[in-house]
Every structure is written in C-alpha cells, then in structure tokens.
Amino acid sequence: MDPAPGAAEQRGDQEAGSPEREPAPWQALPVLSEQQCGAVELVLAYAAPVLDKRQTSRLLKEVSAVHPLPAQSHLKRVRPSRDASRPHTLEMLLCLAEPAVGARSLAELLPWPAVDARGLGQPFLVPVPARPPLTRGQFEEARAHWPTSFHEDRQVTCALAGRLFSAQERAAMQGHMERAIRAAQQAAARGLRAVGAVVVDPASDRVLATGHDCRSPATPLLHATMVCIDLVAQGQGRGTYDLRPHPACSFAPAASAQAVRVGSVRKLDEDVDTDEDGLPYVCTGYDLYITREPCAMCAMALVHSRVQRVFYGAPSPDGALGTRLRLHARPDLNHRFQVFRGVLEAACRRLDPDT
Ligand SMILES: [Zn+2]
C-alpha cells in the first residue's frame, strides 16, 4: 500500500524518482459534453392565464391535441401564476411562437371548434427551455423560466458531486496516476517534456503500458498518449514506433487469457468492436491515466483506439478534453468516452510549467 499523505515528510526523505505526495485531497470530476454543461437554451412560446379554473382539464386536453409539443415533452402545460396581483392563479402553455412574432389573439392561436377557448385570458409571450435539462444545474436554471420535468442521470449527479468512485477505486486511480507521474519525471530527467501516461485494463487493474512524451525534432508526434497507444498495440503484436531508446516506456504483453492476436478477439461483450482488418480496436475497454490533458491529435487517437475512460491530472491550454474542445463527447464522432480531470492535479501541475 502507498504510505498515507505526509508519510514522506515524516520519514524526512523522499525516494528518488517517486512522485511528490499530494498535500491536498484530489477530486476526479467528470468533463461533460457541451450539451450537458451549456446554458439552458430558451425559445419563445405563447401562454395564457386560466381565468376559469374549472375549465383547466378540458382546456389542457384540447390545447394539447391541437398543439402537441413532441420536442418539448419536458415542459409542463400548466404553471401557477407568478404575479400575485393578478386574479388568476394558473397559466397554460399554448404553443411555441414563430421567430419574429408579435402578439396574437386566442382566436389566432386556438382554432375553433377544436379548442373552445372560454376560460382563457389574453395570450402572452414567455421564454421556455428548448430542450430537456441534462444535469441538476440545468434543471434548476430551466425551471426558473417554466416548470420542467427532469429525468436525472444519477451517475452524472454523483460524478459532479465527486461521489462516483469508492475509496478502493480512488486508491487504484491514485496508484496509476503516480505511475504516470514517475514516467513524466523520467522524461524530464532525459530532457524531454514532463508528461507521463499509463494504460490500464480496469477489469483486472493490470497496467498494459507506461509511457512518456518522447517528442523530438525527428519524432514530433510522439506525445505521451500516442506513445502509450502504440505501446499497447506492441503488447498485442502490432505497433509502429521504435521506443527502445526510451527505457521508461514499456508494455505488458497481452496475457494469454486475453491475448489479442489475429483470429483471437478479446470479448468484452457479444458485439465487440473491430476495425477494418477485423482486429479489435487497440484500447477497447481500457483506461488512460495521463498527467496532462491531451491535445486534439491525441484525443482523436483515443477516439480511434476506442479507449473507455481518460483520467487526467492537470488541464492544458491546448487541451481537447475539456479546455478548448470536448472531443470525447461529440455526438458527430462514432465513439465517445468518459473523461475525468483532477486526479493528483496539484502534483501533475507542478510537472509541466505550461499547464
Ligand atoms: Zn498530444
């Protein structure tokens, strides 16, 4: 087991090459999609006061039949009046408004005889949430405009509250990030950029590859993520780069039980993903731990290799998993993966002055 935080100071020494102990507790927070973290988009709609409450259920039925709102099923049709000085206590959502609209009468909005508009007052325009809220924060913002239903994704709520991972999982995550930090320190000792990474099979907690940034004028693409993906591929008998000059970059050959060879597919489920050659993607089901947020090239390599989750320590000004882009969560890419930031963030920030 790793010593408790502060143990190194108590010993009065620090093992050469071991990562600095994290003085502050860290949190692995999810990096959500644009849709999940964006502001609530509003559209204009017509609503009308319900002057005769006894007509409410009939009006609700008739208005909903004439103006169904299939894309806005999150909106409640009726809300309590927000103006205590007015005589009516309820207001009813009638329909969405066209762009560049003005005032409309009940007769224009509710065709007779499909709707008998008796019991309703003069329509008014009101901004309502265009889409269902995806997070509790969006829900709170949305309902301030118009009553909205919310189907909470408990995993997202839990993750946002920093409660997704158990103490045991956090200990394993910390161990993997400490390994990535050691790799980054070894890179720095060789005059390379201090970015380290580790690929882990979360099913067994087995480390499949450890690598660091190896870029040079001759190999400008060898960022730590690219190195690690190639190392995993080498463990599968594939791979492209000669990384032997970098002894801290290593891979574990695929174990026989899960060997990924031509003709032998590592089954994650019945419908394992394969590339054009019929081979499984390099990182299907695997996790990447990396000290610094990957760039766009590396993020796309992670999409192509079908990684399952990425945990990074420090954000990067050119990062593509949360800072500049959110490539892991784009609906128009054919693979998406989960991203968490902040694992041993303080120690990771200290590695690389640019982060
Ligand atoms: Zn990169």
Automatic annotation (TrEMBL):
Q: Where is this region: Disordered?
A: 1-27
List UniProt keywords, sorted A-Z: tRNA processing
Comp. bias regions, Basic and acidic residues: 10-23
Q: Locate the CMP/dCMP-type deaminase domain: which residues?
A: 171-340
Reported cofactor(s)? Zn(2+)
Show the PANTHER family listed in the entry.
CYTOSINE DEAMINASE FAMILY MEMBER, INACTIVE TRNA-SPECIFIC ADENOSINE DEAMINASE-LIKE PROTEIN 3-RELATED
Q: Which family does it belong to?
A: Belongs to the cytidine and deoxycytidylate deaminase family. ADAT3 subfamily.
> In its UniProt entry, what is this protein called?
Probable inactive tRNA-specific adenosine deaminase-like protein 3
- Can you name the source organism? Equus przewalskii
